[in-house]
# Entry
Amino acid sequence: MKILVRGTNWIGDAVMSIPALRELRRVFPDSHITLHTRSWADELFSDAEFIDELVTYDKHRWPIKDVYDNSQFLKGDKFDLAILLPNSFESALTSFLTKVPRRIGYNKDVRGLLLTDPVAVPEWKGRLHEVFYYLHLVGEVERRATGRSTVSSAMPDGRLAISDERKAKARLQLREAGVDVSRKTVAIIAGSANMPAKRWPAENFAKLTDRLNSDLDANVLLIGSKDEADVSARVSELGHRAPIDLSGQTTLGEASAILSVVDLVVSNDTGMAHVAPAVGTNTIVVFGPTDPEITRPYSSLAQVLYKKPLNGKKIEWPSVDEVFAASAIRLQEDVDDEATSDIP
# Structure
């Protein structure tokens, strides 16, 4: 069977959909699974073993052109089943015009008319973590296609593979940027391109980078997109010890590989905060205006620092001392793990 999966539109959502994609592969081990998604996801999923093919597209300013171009391009592959992870009308219309015989997705905004198998939005939506929203949809695919229901009992697995070759290139990139590989390395993600209100203040990041460097003798580097280069520059300006700034100098794939080889990531609530623990790195995520319960990185490697406002009070960010203390503990845990691994 040829399965077409329409991927999500944002980096964080893409990572939160990984457990569902892994379960889809488990349920249909012999099927050919194609992930159709935005072009930025190409490098993110380049080493993913749970899909067979990645088909990407660049978003046009006119959504109807995306629908037409994508449907015409995908028609020739003659897919048997389409699974729509996003709730958009556009994704449903694309699969309809592609003439996929069976089309499964959530019944949102009257798009159910374009689906052969519209799935009701679960009543717990908004209370459980988003990974379960995607898993629930794949569970419905399994139930309707095979009559079995095994996905609901699955423990979410959000790991994202980075090849040894990409890791080696990332280490070389860090050395060329001036990172002392004999010391611990902490990556800071100070930006949040889509919502500046989610940013822990730049002066706090500057104080944190100084303490990580002076108190823990750690390399500190800044990672971010071109759109986040301004806030990274501000962090460098405010600090006494300038970190190594790679903001705007890496692709998404290169940034993901770099995050996989550092010892710790400290981040705002942003897409790369999901990527870091998915590629196997201890991560501290600082939350402010948004409640982490539903959209936090779903991983044991991710630690959320958040102060829930009480009785309508204004947002209170975690302090520099709190974030530094959590960072020190995570780095020490990493040292302890290395020491234990050396025991014969």
